[in-house]
Amino acid sequence: MKKRRIICIxxxxxxxxxxxxxxxxxxxxxxxxxxKYRLVDIPISNCLNAGMNQxxxxxxxxxxxxxxxxQESYKFDPFSNGCVDILSAEQTQQGDxxxxxxADAVRQNIHHFGATDDNDLYVILSGxxxxxxxxxAVVAEHDATGAEVTITAKPVGLAEAPELGLxxxxxxxxxxxxxxxxxxxxxIDSLKVGESVRKRxxxxxxxxxCLASMGIxxxxxxxxxxxxxxxxxxxxxxIIPGLLGKVKMQSYVFDDYWEDIGTVKAFFEANLxxxxxxxxxxxxxxEARIYTRARYLPASKIHGSFIERAVIGDGSxxxxxxxxxxxxxxxxxxxxxxxxENVVMMGADAYESLDAMVENRRLQRPDTGVGQNCLxxxxxIDKNVRxxxxxxxxxxxxxxxxxxGVDIAIRxxxxxxxxxxxxxxxxxxxxx
Length: 432
Prior knowledge:
The protein is of the alpha/beta class and 432 residues long.
């Protein structure tokens, strides 16, 4: 009997404009996370933990670092039939356009996926979310209900609703209405959930909720192919509303931690929350691990320092410094008498040799990392940054300023030192 194929498709997103400057030189799935991971590791790990190992990542902007990360992280033996492949927009005989939306990206690549049986399934996921989900349970419920499409959904407060796709469901969790990012408060109010959803929540409280799409879909292969046989470009805006009343669409209610890391502020706060004693997302769950590249770095070295709350990546060196609520990436270096408070530091791609440090002295250029006697607050320090001695960086009271040509940006109230930037000794950026 032929085995059913489950093909996972991870949407790499567009230009990632809401995450600029972090996406100035990389695509969204390649943005570093939690000291040693990349955003793309989250959906890939959810797939692998569910036994789904045929995975495709669709992207088209700044893909070089993502290619390197995936090639060095996910290797399968020849007997597993597994893969994690990147499919970027390409010119073909049928067309030469970039992906016009999520549905168009899948349409342009569907010939690569190899689903030949109508019983095969497509699991479509977002590449910029932080969550842990049992995808096997989602597929099992999809099969049990006889659905042709299943949409994972999360109860959200009414304040969050205008930024998400909202749905109405019946008592059997079948979707009867879908509205993409409604702005009309009357529409949002009419979509408030009833007891069929509230009884599935661990702590519903007294607040009102709507049921929002998480952008994670399960499609029967035949249904997806027929839905894409059109000029539609987006799942949330066109495909899902267009299938209402034509095919059976079910919701899968997910009541656990889920964070859409689509903005600088969301990225910043999600990383800092990981420094909590009991963070909302647990990277220490051995039953559902989050996988990433094995770098074979030395253990981190910390001496003479005061650390209140921190996540510290492999191969870091912290010397006589103060850290409070900080996430340090691999090969991060923080030197004597420096204070970091509410800081996400992404680290470096390589260590500097002693000869390189001597050359830095000659050129009066800081070494990689944070120099001595610095004060840095509410900031993201991107990869390979060099910060000199006696530097002060604090965005409080300063206006947002980001875009082309800005080396030290402020966005959503968060200061961002862009990738590879050199900050000279004595530089100060703070409100007077």
